[in-house]
UniProtKB/TrEMBL annotation:
It comes from Aurantimonas manganoxydans (strain ATCC BAA-1229 / DSM 21871 / SI85-9A1). Residues 6-64 form the PAS domain. One of its GO terms (molecular function) is diguanylate cyclase activity. It is an enzyme of class 2 (transferase). This is diguanylate cyclase.
Length: 316
């Protein structure tokens, strides 16, 4: 009798917890779906108790929840199904993860911290699994914003030098073709001196947007390398692809027709572009940057407003 009362108290306690919680029995059916879980998901307990439809509170199509993975001993699926796996610090049999969930009934997208742990009988058999959830969307969004600030150039919105270095190092690990463009705005100092820093900043932003628009959105990285210099990492791109991108950038700038205010400079703002392609995996990332930089310097020497690959002038 005492054990029954204790069980009843435990169920009532779980029902009134402020933490969203649900419980599956050994067969995977929902036995508890507390009020906090109703408020989080918009799904009433009566809709899921006695069913295996607990997934419908969090996802638009059927897929395992963390409690299901505990129930079935499928720890190896956590990394596949969840954005973050925090299970390494938990006791054997319990799992912890984080994931974006769509919450179909509420029409909301929430980032949830999820914990699931087994409950065993005195004899050691699994009798239930408890899953608890915490809405940490605001923390995740704040973290994402900080990560963006850490990797983004504050003026132009493209990647900063730190992000450029990280991405180039990451791409270097893949054996595929890899090309690099170094791009410099010609005669930018007299432009800046004549019109002031605010107009100079506007020019930098406009050219950054222009470069981004002419690169492959799905894989290329445009970064502000420093001052008026930009860099474009072109994964899976041989020299022909790199050359095509560089030509598009020059053509787009000519269409933009940004007037240069200094009478001693050409009437329109132009770009010099140096290109390099990794042809040998023994070459280092620094060597690839140096090769593209040398081509850019050569473009400047030859009169600007052109593309140089090695010693070869491609376009003027």
């Amino acid at each position: 009798m005492l054990e029954y009362r204790e069980q009843g108290f435990a169920v009532q306690l779980m029902e009134h917890l402020v933490v969203p919680t649900f419980v599956l029995d050994a067969s995977g059916h929902v036995t508890i779906w507390n009020r906090a879980c109703e408020r989080l998901t918009g799904v009433r307990a009566a809709e899921v108790i006695g069913t295996k439809l607990h997934w419908s509170g969090f996802y638009e199509s059927a897929r395992p929840c963390l409690a299901d993975l505990v129930l079935n001993g499928e720890d190896d699926l956590v990394d596949k199904l969840y954005l973050a796996n925090r299970s390494e610090t938990y006791q054997h049999g319990a799992l912890s993860a984080e994931n974006w969930c769509v919450l179909p009934q509420c029409g909301a997208r929430r980032y949830l911290a999820i914990d699931a742990g087994p409950i065993y009988s005195p004899s050691g058999s699994l009798i239930a699994v408890v899953e608890t959830l915490r809405d940490i969307t605001s923390q995740k969004e704040a973290q994402t914003a900080l990560e963006t600030l850490a990797s983004q150039d504050g003026l132009t919105g493209v990647a900063n030098r730190r992000m450029f270095d990280q991405r180039l190092a990451a791409e270097w690990q893949h054996p595929a073709h890899l090309s690099l463009l170094m791009i410099d705005i010609d005669h930018f100092k007299p432009y800046n001196d004549a019109l002031g820093h605010q107009r100079g900043d506007e020019c930098l932003r406009r050219i950054a947007d222009l470069i981004v628009s002419e690169t492959r959105q799905e894989c290329d990285l445009v970064a502000r390398y420093g001052g008026e210099e930009f860099a474009v990492i072109l994964p899976h791109a041989d020299m022909q692809i790199a050359l095509a991108v560089a030509r598009r950038i020059l053509a787009a700038l000519k269409r933009a027709a940004i007037e240069h205010p200094c009478p001693s400079c050409p009437p329109l703002v132009s770009l010099s572009i140096g290109a390099a392609c990794r042809s040998d995996r023994s070459v280092t990332p620094d060597a690839l940057i140096a090769a593209a930089d040398a081509s850019l310097y050569r473009a400047k020497q030859l009169g600007r407003d052109r593309i140089i690959i090695g010693e070869t002038e491609i376009a003027a």
